[in-house]
Amino acid sequence: MITDKDFEDFLDNDQKAFKKVFETYQHVLMYYVVEATQNESTAEEIVQEAFVQLFLQKDKLSTPEQIYPFLFTVVKRQTISTYRRKMSSKRYMDELGALWSEAEHTVLERIAGAEIQEAFDRSVNELPLRQKQVFLLSRLENKSYQEIADHLGVSKNTVKNQLISATKIIKLKLARFQNLILSFFLFFL
């Protein structure tokens, strides 16, 4: 308990009086803040800040009975402020994490897509001329076997065989991307 004499000494900047005030109220304030924050180091910071504020604003107090309400009010406000900062920070980190995750997926999609597209283009360009023509007319221009046969002056059966051969060659050349494509699609499911 802080006596009137202790309080007068405290107001006169007596270190022993301040230590007595600290020892009288520190434990009860720590208990309150640790319960509220679930973090002992945060609680220590908040309680220390309350005693700093008490020391700086001690001239506003007129009786020893005002010490605890003053400290409690400062601790309560600091705890609420810390909680708000923590929640704002958590919300910010969650949003930032989502943005980073989204950006990472987009970058991965672009890299994988670009590599696959480049390998596909290279495979098509390496096909024999007739197979390349048939493949491009069929897959890129969506022409039927008959339309391709008429355009190239070959039989419908030749178009079918050329397309089957071209598709096999491209599949073989893109086989190394099979695991990448599979993992890519599984990753985003």
UniProtKB/TrEMBL annotation:
<dbReference type="GO" id="GO:0016987">
    <property type="term" value="F:sigma factor activity"/>
</dbReference>
<dbReference type="InterPro" id="IPR013324">
    <property type="entry name" value="RNA_pol_sigma_r3/r4-like"/>
</dbReference>
<keyword id="KW-0805">Transcription regulation</keyword>
<protein>
    <recommendedName>
        <fullName>HTH luxR-type domain-containing protein</fullName>
    </recommendedName>
</protein>
<comment type="similarity">
    <text>Belongs to the sigma-70 factor family. ECF subfamily.</text>
</comment>
<dbReference type="InterPro" id="IPR013325">
    <property type="entry name" value="RNA_pol_sigma_r2"/>
</dbReference>
<dbReference type="InterPro" id="IPR014327">
    <property type="entry name" value="RNA_pol_sigma70_bacteroid"/>
</dbReference>
<dbReference type="Pfam" id="PF04542">
    <property type="entry name" value="Sigma70_r2"/>
</dbReference>
<feature type="domain" description="RNA polymerase sigma-70 region 2">
    <location>
        <begin position="22"/>
        <end position="86"/>
    </location>
</feature>
<dbReference type="InterPro" id="IPR013249">
    <property type="entry name" value="RNA_pol_sigma70_r4_t2"/>
</dbReference>
<keyword id="KW-0731">Sigma factor</keyword>
<dbReference type="InterPro" id="IPR014284">
    <property type="entry name" value="RNA_pol_sigma-70_dom"/>
</dbReference>
<dbReference type="GO" id="GO:0003677">
    <property type="term" value="F:DNA binding"/>
</dbReference>
<dbReference type="InterPro" id="IPR036388">
    <property type="entry name" value="WH-like_DNA-bd_sf"/>
</dbReference>
<dbReference type="Pfam" id="PF08281">
    <property type="entry name" value="Sigma70_r4_2"/>
</dbReference>
<feature type="domain" description="RNA polymerase sigma factor 70 region 4 type 2">
    <location>
        <begin position="118"/>
        <end position="163"/>
    </location>
</feature>
<dbReference type="InterPro" id="IPR039425">
    <property type="entry name" value="RNA_pol_sigma-70-like"/>
</dbReference>
<dbReference type="InterPro" id="IPR007627">
    <property type="entry name" value="RNA_pol_sigma70_r2"/>
</dbReference>
<keyword id="KW-0804">Transcription</keyword>
<dbReference type="GO" id="GO:0006352">
    <property type="term" value="P:DNA-templated transcription initiation"/>
</dbReference>
